[in-house]
Amino acid sequence: MAGSTLASATAESKPGGAAARASGVSPWAEAWRRFRRHKLAVASLVVLALMVLLVVLGPSLWKVAINDIDFSARLQSPSMAHPLGTDDLGQDLFARMLYGGRISLAVGLAAMMMSICVGVAVGAVAGISRGSVDAALMWLTDLFLSLPQLPLLLLVIYLFRERLKSVFGPEVGVFLLIVVVIGAFRWMPVARLVRAQFFSLREKEFVEAARALGASTARQVVRHILPNALGPVIVAGTIDVAAAIIAESTLSFLGLGFPPDIPTWGRLLFDAKDHMDIAAHWALFPGAAIFLTVLTINFVGDGLRDALDPRKVL
Amino acid sequence: MGSYILRRLMIALPSLLGISVVLFTVLALAPGDPFEELATNPNVPAEVRLLLRAKFGLDDPIWERYVRWLMAMLHGDWGFSFISRVDVDQLILQRIPATLAVIGASQILALAVALPVGVLSAVRPYSWFDRIASTMAFIGFSLPTFFTGILLILVFSIKLDWLPFVFRADISATGWAWWWEQTKQSIMPITVLGLFQGASWTRYVRSAVLDVVRLDYVNTARSKGLAERAVILKHVVRNALIPVVTLVALQMPAVFGGAIVTEQIFRIPGIGSLLIDAILRNDTPVIMAVTFVFSCLVILFNLIADLLYGWLDPRISYR
Amino acid sequence: MQEREIHALIEQVRSGELPRRAFIQRLVGVGLSAPMASMLLMHHGIAQTQQAFSYKPTKRGGGGALRVLWWQGATLLQPHFANGTKDQEGSRIFYEPLACWDTEGNLVPILAAEIPSRENGGLSADGRSVTWKLKRGVNWHDGQAFTADDCVFTWEYAKDPATAAVTNGVYKDVKVDKIDSHTIKVTFNKPTPFWATAFVAAEGMVIPKHLFGPYIGGKSRDAPNNLKPVGTGPYKFVDFKPGDMVRGEINTNYHMPNRPHFDSIEMKGGGDATSAARAVLQTGEYDYAWNLQVEDEVLRRMEDSGKGQVFIVPSGDIEFIQLNPTDPVTEIDGERSHPKSKHFAFSDPAVREAMSLLADRKSIQEFIYGRTGIATSNFLNNPPRYRSPNTKLDFNIDRANQLLEAAGWKKAADGIREKAGKKLRFVYQTSVNSLRQKEQAVVKQGCQKAGIDLELKSVTASVFFSSDVANPDTYGKFYADMQMYTTTMTQPDPERFMDQYTSWEVASKANKWQGRNITRWTSEEYDKLFHQAEAELDPVKRTAMFIAMNDLPVKANIVLPLISRPRVRGVSLKLTTQLTGWDLDLSMLFNWFRSA
């Protein structure tokens, strides 16, 4: 179970740690320092930052158009002119991946953040309170779990698309809609996982100790229980990013997401699936990009967990 | 504990009712028309179409349709499909065997893979085994099922010609031949689904075990001289199971709901494809029936999970 | 094509100068259907020829199991309740009509003893009635005899509005009388040269009176035989799982000798077109697959496995783009695309003409459709010999630019043309379909080069083609600047389609967007011609009027034909089929056989 006390507090501690504690470094700086010691996490953060930079700046540097149809150059393997090859309309895959990457990364990360935030909030409130609040929140969770996604999607999009478009503009409006819609269907497992963690954590000695010292419920939750409950949340986060990127392509396939000519990674994978036997490159690169995103987020999450985990003394 | 169970069961009924109201309203408001194909057919005069709509009560106000549906349900009449005019319960029952056989088996496969691999990874974190297992897990859930499904078909059905890829629910052989045919056609969909699910479960198991394996009582058990195996199995795993139980409980209703993409690719006549067809054709009775059973299962399994928490961690109390 | 020309062609066929097939092709080329062309000839006394087909098996049965894939599975097996062709095909395994259409537009008798004509007294001189002689010795699957009573009953069943049969429109305006046990007379309320509607083809399947009799009218959906068909067809019903599978076994009492060849038939549903193609062409798990809407080069690759081939069957379907002459953005009285509003760009004929020059049909055909589509620019998808000289200007970006420039649309800094502050930016919608999305991309690129920006939109098919009043994305509402889909033409009598461009059929809020004129285009000339055609009795004059009417929206560039789409089927190399583009795939199922 998470959160029990270590075997021996002094056995693993190092003089540096004790000194830092003694000199009163703020907990955030402390967390950052510990994060930095997790090599894989730092490397992943760098890679992730690079990917974001690439998709943000890339289209202005790599000037090939994303929808330049050139029937003479269909399904070509990577070459100098087309570093990642072309698809079956002769469009350059590198340019398409850069352009679509903005949307895929943005949607993936935003939807994941939304589902994590909502899930943690609901799970924490349900987990710490009991009785009717818990019952009500679990009813809400069960409701969302039962809802069939497609009719609800159609309904939501048909109700809100025009309004959002007129307030935020067409691209941002659709983006918001998609993030909300994808996030809305993925927060429930997170909520239940966090709630389960809370059930076992709130009976622990250190929480009892905090209570005895007069900590308010909110403080108990935020400073004591939540950091220890993050394990499954981080795993859920990594899985949700991949799921969100794929879900966006499913939405677009149903005509509910971005227009069909916007080359998000999930869409590229979907378009490529029938040509896998002769044009493997078409599917390989978007798949690899999604995989890389998932990998980096996972290690960043691992690093975060180690950094915030008060039991582990680095 | 007993009063807790009773209380939960009593709450379950009104909550189920509430869910059914929301479901019904969403379906009634969602755009789409069960008789849309008729609208473009010049052979169908408008009066006939309107008569059809009136016959199925499609133009009545929502609350009236809901009450009608509720009354029928309470009498055991699940209504019949607008599209195929078959009784809904018959439609569902026809599809349960295939769904259980494939989807159910894939969940068992997922669990059978996730538990040992996750535990082993966590016990030796960052070892070669852990690295390979984690990478495979990442690949597993980064790739959508439509992709891996087609990949497997390309390799095993087309290139190697070992396995059929169109699922037949009515194999005419008997005895061992039947089992052989059934296995051959089920391996690919079960693998696709099972590995996809297992990939994410492996990560959760690993994370949960990692949380537990460094704790004081594990060290105590080790220092008492218990074999490593006993330590892992009797102390670590049991305590790490809470997130796993949560996830399995969340996933169980999906066994009934089927897996839409996999069923589509392999043409498995499961409940998932029934549901998606009904949704795309706005066949409300079928959608209501399937989602209602689904929500019953959701409530049931989440209740079981909540009870299991108490058994796994005796400190959790129910007030 | 004028009336005179049609008469001349008919005379050429009569004298033998012009092969019958060429005449039919020519008329199909101007937008008519082969059945209709064939009926024209029949009306003028030119007998039809039977299609050459050699049926090899010398005994009934022994062919093993026939396995067919319909990736939209049948959901019911009652032809008069059919929701679309998949249900009709499923029913067609068991039920039969009196006659069906073959690929050349000839009528093939099935339950009829012979095709009615003037010579054999089947067609009355005043064109108001048809007498069908029914085949003798035909039994239903349960052993009862098939008689004229069943035909009369089918008519009563379908015409009753309380039955809510989808074939109602075919039977409600006719009267069917029993002359004797194997003769019926169908009477129309006005002279009808195109008489082959009742009891013919998909809407003509006859149902048994002794089983459906008690279930006419309001009780129609309670009939147990709705799910357990008993027909006269080559296969008897065994099992049905809606949306998944239909199974039949050989009918040993079938009324045609040595037929059917197969011992059983299994029709599997579900999945998508590409995997259906794979199952027939690459793994050979199935013998036949319906409607392979797949890119041609993918199909070609699959054919390389050597297990199956792709059959292209000509039919009358055309994919086209509609331009909206009304304003889809401004709301007037709670209605967008109001018939009285005007589109800021498409009400200018120069812009419409420019648009017609910006779709690269040739590339679309060559690289997207391949064999499965034929570029067409004027509903004139005829063979090269007959192509009109105007089609040279098919895809001409320079000319489009010139037209727009001359009409006052000047390129702004961002490359998009504008006039009086309005930019040429259009929303272009269609249903979700990978081939269609590719077409959209090609058209978008063409337009970009002329300074027009297109925003692509794709809507789920079940929503796009629905008639839901509340939904803004249906094709009936046309809340976009341009939209694209395929129109099919199966009936011999085109009057049902001619009303698509009449002014009183304009789809609007007043008629809940059920009006059939979706483009909201009106023209006095068209309305005049329509009224004339309604009153015209001479079929050739009527045909000429139809052709003239068809040309009007195309010449006005409100409707831009893109690709004519034949039917694409996947067939195993060992299987011999008899397919037609003018009726159901399974209409001649009795003639299918497998060679060793």
Overview of this protein structure:
The complex is a heterotrimer of chains A (314), B (319) and C (596). Chain A is mostly helical and 314 residues long. Chain A has 13 helices and no strands. In chain A, helix 4 crosses helix 11 (230-253). The model of chain A is unreliable at 10-20 (pLDDT under 50). By secondary structure, chain B is mainly α. Helix content of chain B is 76%, strand content 0%. Chain B contains 13 helices and no strands. Chain B is globular, with a radius of gyration of 24 Å. Chain C is an alpha+beta fold. In chain C, 27% of the residues lie in helices and 19% in strands. Chain C has 17 helices and 21 strands. In chain C, the strands form 5 sheets. In chain C, strands 1, 7, 8, 9, 10, 11, 12, 16, 17, 18 and 19 form an 11-stranded mixed β-sheet that branches. In chain C, strands 4-6-5 form a 3-stranded antiparallel β-sheet, covered by helices on one side. In chain C, helix 13 links the parallel strand 16 (425-431) and strand 17 (453-459). In chain C, helix 10 runs antiparallel to helix 12, helix 11 (361-369) packs antiparallel against helix 13 and helix 16 runs antiparallel to helix 17 (539-555). The longest helix of chain C is centred in the last third of the chain and has 17 residues, at 539-555. Chain C starts with a helix and ends with a strand. The interface between B and C is large, with 50 and 58 residues.
How do you describe this structure in short?
Chain A has helices at 15-23, 27-37, 39-61, 93-128, 132-146, 149-168, 170-184, 187-201, 205-212, 217-228, 230-253, 265-272, 280-308.
